[in-house]
């Protein structure tokens, strides 16, 4: 009996003075070792005395057919034991997961952080040191006289990392070329760069002077382009810290927004050439950096309100950068080279905020219910569940949605029970096909996450026909408007 399923219990056996005891074998093994030992000992004695014998019949499956064996067990139609046999030539599916930690401990690599003494840049430098980087080149226009420069170099030294701090305006190509020439003479080759340079001059476009325009544009446009041209093509990573200001278009930040848009476009351009590039469009960062340090204490709340975003922590920024370093080349889908972070769900965006006024964002209403990944998510996945979600969200009529749900339900049941789809009789109920309470729980979870319809196990088991059930699911689906 599965206690976690919290079924009602038939109490009739208790009329025979029977006793029922809840017993968790796993807990018993964990907390009562000697008792388990004694029990196993007694068991082996019985085995030696031939008082007990192995369960039979047994059905063996090659390990490659694990799914078939599991499905058979799930149906509860078998007697005895199912055995999985590994073999030297067996081939089976495994789920692999690449490391989510960036390896920066190559002694023959230098990593460059532009704007590396700014709020976020400093955190990035400490992160690189912690990840084992041995040579880091930190640059900004006035880096050498920055109050944080010396302590950072010291922190690096204490952890075996050679941190070099240099003045360089990356927007000036000659300065960058000179810096790179010096670094080529004195440090290992530059293998990765994080571009975190910015300069803010916020005011509405009518009041913006040419100089103010230029000062925000320069580090983002000229600076990033110079890095693109002057650094080698075989960089392991090229990460740009861009901003969602460019995506939503903050009124008083036309210069900054344009600079960020440039970085987003450059990320796609590089990705299309098979080069490393990721632009991360950050929202306000809540604990370090320019928003936190601003004298305008209301800036953060104002940004959140008008952009429809929530602030993120520096810890989250570091995780995003780490993901960009671990997966630096996004040539398979150039749109994946731009990550838009922090825009909140449609319902949480206040009326009057930029995304609510701009039709380009209105598809986010679907994201509210479909769980689509933010405004930047486009393209069609090959995963049948994703395809179903997208099709349901775009279904123009109730009938269209119903036939999509019906088709998906038949496919799911066919997979669960190893059946041919054509053999499934949709005029009978799911329990007639073999769905029991265990499978019903699996179906319920699948319907909830993919079709976004909440149904109960009772409804799965008791609805008279699959067609009726599909209708119920379609009506409840949050994807079908
Ligand atoms: N903080 C946030 O909430 C936030 C939100 C969204 C996006 N971002 C992005 O995150 C990155 C870092 O932001 P932050 O808050 O750390 O900014 P920050 O504290 O102002 O640091 C930026 C650094 O860039 C340097 N810099 C400016 N122009 C330069 C140039 N031409 N060449 C070289 N260095 C230059 C500045 O140093 P010098 O004056 O010495 O040159 C400054 O230390 C930026 O790309 C920004 O767009 C930040």
Quickly give the CATH architecture of the largest domain: 3-Layer(aba) Sandwich
Task: Identify every distinct bound molecule in the structure, by name, code or SMILES.
Answer: NADP nicotinamide-adenine-dinucleotide phosphate
Can you tell me the number of structural domains? 3
Helix content: 40-55%
> N-to-C SSE series?
HHEHEEHEHEHEHHEHHEHHHEHHHHHHHH
Distance between the termini: 40 Å
CATH H level, superfamily name of the largest domain: NAD(P)-binding Rossmann-like Domain
The backbone outline, from C-alpha atoms, is globular
Number of helices: 21
CATH topology of the largest domain: Rossmann fold
| Structural class designation | alpha/beta
Q: Biggest β-sheet: count, sense, barrel?
A: 7 strands, parallel
Would you kindly provide a brief summary of this structure?
With 481 residues, the protein is an alpha/beta fold.
Give an overview in words.
The chain has 481 residues and is an alpha/beta fold. It folds into three domains: 3-82, no CATH class; 110-370, Rossmann fold (3-Layer(aba) Sandwich), CATH 3.40.50; 384-476, Non-ribosomal Peptide Synthetase Peptidyl Carrier Protein, Chain A (Orthogonal Bundle). 45% of the residues lie in helices and 10% in strands. It contains 21 helices and nine strands. The strands form two sheets. It has a seven-stranded parallel β-sheet with strand order 5-4-3-6-7-8-9, sandwiched between helices. Helix 7 (210-220) runs parallel beside helix 8 and helix 17 packs across helix 21 (466-476). The longest helix has 20 residues, at 398-417. The site of NADP nicotinamide-adenine-dinucleotide phosphate has 30 residues, from helix 4, strand 4, helix 7, strand 7 and helix 11.
């Amino acid at each position: 009996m599965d206690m976690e399923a919290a079924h009602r219990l038939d109490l009739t056996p208790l009329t025979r003075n029977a006793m029922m005891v809840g017993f968790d074998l796993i807990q018993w093994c964990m907390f009562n070792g000697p008792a388990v030992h004694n029990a196993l000992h007694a068991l082996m004695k019985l085995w030696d005395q031939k008082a007990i014998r192995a369960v039979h019949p047994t059905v063996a499956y090659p390990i490659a057919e694990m799914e078939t064996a599991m499905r058979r067990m799930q149906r509860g139609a078998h007697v005895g034991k199912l055995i999985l046999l590994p073999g030297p030539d067996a081939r089976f599916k495994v789920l692999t997961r690449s490391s989510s930690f960036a390896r920066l401990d190559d002694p023959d690599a230098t990593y460059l952080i532009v704007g590396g003494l700014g709020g976020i840049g400093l955190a990035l430098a400490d992160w690189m040191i912690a990840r084992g980087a041995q040579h880091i080149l930190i640059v900004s226009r006035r880096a050498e006289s920055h109050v944080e420069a010396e302590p950072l170099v010291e922190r690096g030294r204490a952890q075996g990392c050679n941190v070099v701090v240099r003045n360089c305006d990356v927007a000036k190509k000659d300065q960058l070329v000179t810096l790179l020439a010096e670094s080529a003479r004195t440090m290992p080759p530059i293998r990765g760069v994080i571009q975190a340079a910015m300069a803010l001059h916020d005011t509405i476009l009518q009041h913006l002077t040419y100089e103010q325009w230029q000062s925000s544009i320069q580090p983002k446009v000229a600076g990033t382009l110079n890095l693109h041209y002057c650094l080698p093509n075989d960089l392991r990573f090229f990460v740009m810290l861009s901003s969602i200001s460019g995506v939503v278009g903050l009124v008083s930040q036309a210069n900054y927004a344009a600079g960020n848009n440039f970085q987003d476009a450059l990320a796609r351009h590089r990705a299309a050439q098979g080069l490393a590039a990721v632009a991360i469009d950050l929202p306000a960062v809540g604990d370090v950096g320019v928003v936190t340090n601003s004298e305008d204490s209301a800036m953060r709340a104002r940004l959140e309100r008008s952009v429809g975003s929530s602030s993120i922590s520096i810890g989250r920024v570091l995780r995003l950068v780490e993901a960009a370093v671990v997966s630096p080349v996004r040539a398979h889908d150039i749109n994946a080279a731009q990550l838009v972070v922090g825009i909140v769900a449609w319902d949480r965006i206040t009326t009057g905020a930029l995304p609510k006024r701009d039709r380009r964002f209105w598809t986010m209403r679907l994201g509210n219910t479909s769980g689509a990944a933010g405004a930047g998510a486009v393209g069609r996945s090959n995963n049948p569940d994703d395809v179903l979600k997208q099709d349901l969200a775009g279904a123009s009529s109730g009938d269209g949605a119903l036939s999509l749900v019906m088709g998906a339900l038949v496919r799911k049941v066919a997979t669960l029970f190893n059946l041919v789809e054509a053999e499934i009789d949709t005029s009978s109920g799911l329990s007639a096909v073999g769905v029991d309470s265990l499978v019903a729980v699996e179906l319920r979870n699948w319907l909830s996450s993919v079709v976004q319809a909440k149904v109960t196990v009772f409804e799965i088991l008791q609805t008279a026909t699959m067609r009726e059930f599909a209708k119920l699911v379609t009506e409840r689906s949050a994807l079908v408007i």
